[in-house]
Amino acid sequence: MTEPNLEKGQVILVGAGPGDIGLLTLRGKDWLVRADVVIYDHLVNSNMLRFAGSAELIYVGKKAGHATVTQNKINELLVNSANAGKIVVRLKGGDPFIFGRGGEEVQALKEADIRFTIVPGIPSPIGVSAYAGIPLTHRDHASTISIITGSNEHGEEHLKLDWENISTRTGTLVFLMGARKLPRIVEQLIKFKKKPDTPVAVIQWGTTSRQKTWVGTLNTIVDIATKEKIQPPTLTIIGEVVNLKPITDWYETLPLFGKTFVVTRAEEQAESFIHMLEEQGAEAFLYSSIKTIPPVDWGPLDQSLEELSSYDGLIFTSANGVHFFSQRLREKNKDIRELKGVRIYAIGPKTEQAVLKLNIRVDTVPENYIAESLIECIGKDNIEGKKFLLPRASVAREVLPNTLREMGASIDVVPAYQTILPEQPETNFLKRLNEGTIDVITFTSSSTVTNFLDRLNKEHHEKLNKITIACIGPITQKTAEDRGLKVTIVPNQYTVTGLFSAIKSHFAK
């Protein structure tokens, strides 16, 4: 067998973990960012695919035992894509080498002289059991673990397992992919003398907001599964460690556990909000409805930068305005010394933080983070004859500049950026919307509301009536209500942190 040809592309087998996007490894994310092609499975969290940027996405998942693409065809896809000189990420649920056919795929790559790399993932027995609050080992209850497949790849009725040997093991038994074979598993364990009162836990959709755990014994779990209509994907844990769940439970007790959120703000600003929600047990995924880009014409802002010293005040109404203003200041070979003697106004704490990062002190931040409150602060001084600069989005509310002019000030409103509708890769949003498995949609600006709704058809609009709508403030709320949405959550403090607190309070009730 020859050595792999380094002029060809390569294949990276990446373990995506058991479901929670946060359990993807840093190395796995790095390869997704670099990928030309991503070939992914059914149980992969599709929100991970946004890390892949413009890569070609190929779904080869298997659901309910039925493969959309045969294993031989998957092997062929891997080889052909790599032979075309591409970086191919084979994204697999859990870990590639634990009941994931990773070994078979590596064999095919080796035979075709294709370079490959293995990026381990958190296996579902490890991740799911931890999120279910069940330690697989405990010195008082179990010192060994057996991981067993509950699925039969060849479709035979009975699993070909050494049931007598498995039944006599004293540690923890973990069955993967065994939802449909649960009656058979229980029958064989009891047949070979496993105690009928042995504790059992079945966890469905582990590590996601849809996680649900049923606890029983070998005697009762089949009846529970039948009554509850438990469907895949599941993981079954059998052993005394199951009794520790009331003590070691943590994920299912978080305040937002079981809730699914859609975050519509710009991708570059969404990460911190998503993390806030996830840390409280929610599933949060991005369906970005806004993207900030430079203005069509830098001319008006450039002209203002040439005469910064002529202004009495500089007003920022968003962190984006600060970002693009400072970016253009640098590009024009200017710095903060140009702002000597100019008062700086920021509409809220996030905008203030963005200004402070430039080592510029903010003179005024209003108590309420809206234009009307900022006007009130500015108007406390006599501003007649004063000159202000407002770098902002190319399309925005006119209440601030109009009111300042009415008060006798002059104000130059210059576009520092524009917001557009981003290209939206296919995500599971519409699928989840149709399933009715979205609990909350969050909006952080009027633009996110407008762009979000413009993407949906009439049928989708009707489904929104059953979803809780959360808006960052009254302006965004009005836009949403004018478009027919019923807004349930609006914070008293019009920031992302305030919105997060209002969401927690709402569900605590």
For the record, the count of structural domains works out to 4
Per the principal axes of the C-alpha atoms, what is the gross shape?
elongated
CATH topology of the largest domain: Rossmann fold
The largest sheet is: 5 strands, parallel
**What is the CATH level 1 assignment of the largest domain?**
Alpha Beta
Q: Termini, distance in Å?
A: 66 Å
Mean pLDDT across residues: 91
Main sheet strand line-up? 3-2-6-1-7
CATH architecture of the largest domain: 3-Layer(aba) Sandwich
Helix tally equals 19
Work out the helicity level: 25-40%
Strand runs, count: 22
Rg, rounded, reads 28 Å
Assign the structural class, choosing from mainly alpha, mainly beta, alpha/beta, alpha+beta, or little secondary structure.
Answer: alpha/beta
Strand content: 15-25%
Low-confidence stretches: none
Task: Please provide a written account of the structure.
By secondary structure, the protein is an alpha/beta fold. The chain folds into four domains: about 110 residues, Tetrapyrrole methylase, N-terminal domain (Cobalt-precorrin-4 Transmethylase, domain 1, 3-Layer(aba) Sandwich); about 130 residues, 2-Layer Sandwich (Methyltransferase, Cobalt-precorrin-4 Transmethylase, Domain 2), CATH 3.30.950.10; about 120 residues, Rossmann fold; about 130 residues, Rossmann fold, CATH 3.40.50. The chain contains 19 helices and 22 strands. β10 and β11 form a beta hairpin.
Which helices and strands occur, and which strands form pairs?
Layout: E1 10-15, H1 26-34, E2 37-40, E3 56-59, E4 62-63, E5 66-67, H2 71-83, E6 87-92, H3 102-111, E7 115-119, H4 124-131, E8 145-149, H5 163-167, E9 172-176, H6 182-191, E10 199-204, E11 212-217, H7 221-228, E12 234-238, H8 245-248, E13 260-263, H9 267-279, E14 283-286, E15 291-293, H10 299-306, E16 313-316, H11 319-331, E17 343-346, H12 349-356, H13 371-378, E18 387-393, H14 399-406, E19 410-420, H15 429-435, E20 440-443, H16 446-454, H17 458-463, E21 468-471, H18 474-482, E22 487-489, H19 496-508
Parallel strand pairs: 1-6, 1-7, 2-3, 2-6, 8-9, 13-14, 13-20, 16-17, 16-18, 18-19, 20-21, 21-22
Antiparallel strand pairs: 4-5, 9-12, 10-11, 10-12, 15-19
Helix pairs in contact: 2-3, 11-12, 13-14, 16-18
